[in-house]
Amino acid sequence: MNKVLRQLRLYGLIPIITIDDAKSVRPLAQALIKAHLPVLEITFRTQAAEEALHIISEEFPEILLGAGTILTPENAEKATKAGARFLLSPGFNPRVVDYCREHSITIVPGINSPTQIELALEKNIRVLKFFPSEASGGIELIKSMAAPFPDIHFIATGGVNNSNIATYVAFPGILACGGSWIAKEKDIAAGRFEDITVTAKSAIRNMLGFKVASIQLGGIGEKDETAIEPVFSELLHQPVKKSNTTIVVSDILEFKIPGTTDLSHTICLTTNDYERALFYMQQQGYNVQDKTDEQGLRELWITEVIGNYSIKITKAGVHEQR
Q1: Measured between alpha carbons, how far is residue 53 from residues 66, 89, 247 in Å?
Q2: Which string of DSSP letters, residue by residue, matches 235-291?
Q3: Is 101 within 8 Å of 45 (Cβ atoms)?
Q4: Sequence-ordered strand ranges (E) for 53-126
Q5: Structure confidence by residue, pLDDT tens digits, 95-119
Q6: Which of 47, 228, 242, 294 is the most buried (most CB within 10 A)?
């Protein structure tokens, strides 16, 4: 997998843009950068597409720029000369694939069947666009097809949106998801770029799947320890598990017993994906430690104490098993 595809995997999201006025890509690019999502695919099916690619590549080099709806080798040539660093096509066109391979261009051709996957393997292509995703069977079909092709990764587009993206990206075979819902044509045309920033941030949040898994409170004394258990177990009818060091309420709230010398508080979050979570937190300027705990489980820790709380991130599913 080359550098561009590895970068796409970290972003996990590709806003798909159909542009009618090339000038509008400037505020659009700024909106996506503000959301910490500097990546987009411009569909190569309007008169403005080529100029829009030129503007982005020249004025916003930090954006990972792609072009979609590449139907011919001529499209591929124009798009890459305009600055596209990766190309996507709706179907598997051997002429387009061969041209891109001959010119060392990253191409992600579209497929929706095992036969097409085998055609891609013959061309030594292992990242494919699954399109139209929802209409073709969605994530369940992707999982079924991935079983005999473990080296294949998919970029899912077509019907992927804010409500189902977490289901897609939770599957390791998904390299990224693309969609037009992040930057809709009508929002671009109306100049609603602040709304696009908000939508992009929401998409990132849903993709990463951050959830509060537990809160650990420190610094409790003997009187606190005596009072906590009856309140939760008898008054609130919450299950309470007690050890020599902690009182755990419903596996969500944890009180540390060691004594008043232990004043630390910790909020534990879970995420769908360690690498993407680490990447996005670093994108936003957080210093993050990537370490393994005493049980051999991976954890991410934000090094800054926020509001007297330390914050750690574990993998969804792993936390519940502990």
Answers
A1: 8, 16, 57
A2: IS---EEE-SSEEEETTTEEEE-S-TT---EEEEEEES-HHHHHHHHHHTT--EEEE
A3: no
A4: 64-68, 86-88, 107-108, 110-111
A5: 999 999 999 999 999 999 999 999 9
A6: 228
Average per-residue pLDDT for the chain: 92
Angle at 275 between CA 272 and CA 280, to 5 degrees: 90
d(CA 76, CA 49): 13
Segments in 149-254 forming alpha helices (H) = 165-169, 185-189, 193-208, 222-230
CATH superfamily, with its number, for domain 211-321: 2,3-Dihydroxybiphenyl 1,2-Dioxygenase, domain 1 (3.10.180.10)
Which burial class, exposed, middle or buried, applies to 168 when counting CB atoms under 10 A from its CB (0-12, 13-18, 19+)?
A: buried
- Global pTM value: 0.88
pLDDT of res. 259: 61
Any catalytic annotation for residue 41? yes
Options 3, 23, 34, 41, the catalytic residue = 41
- Residue 129: active-site member: yes
Q: Is domain 3-207 annotated with CATH 3.20.20.70? A: yes
Sheet holding 298-306, edge to edge: 240-242, 246-249, 253-256, 211-217, 265-271, 309-315, 298-306, 288-292
Cβ-contact 197, 34 below 8 angstroms:
yes
Which one is catalytic: 3, 51, 129, 291? 129
From CA 24, how far away is CA 149, in angstroms rounded? Answer: 41
pLDDT, tens digit (0-9, with 9 covering 90-100), for 189-230: 999 999 999 999 999 999 999 999 989 888 777 667 777 878
- CB of 159 closer than 8 Å to CB of 180: no
In this structure, of 65-74, 148-157, 245-254, 301-310, the range with the lowest mean pLDDT score is 245-254
Question: Domain-by-domain residue ranges, the chain?
Answer: 3-207, 211-321
Q: How confident is the model at residue 52 (pLDDT cuts 50, 70, 90)?
A: very high
Number of other CB atoms surrounding residue 126 within 10 Å: 15
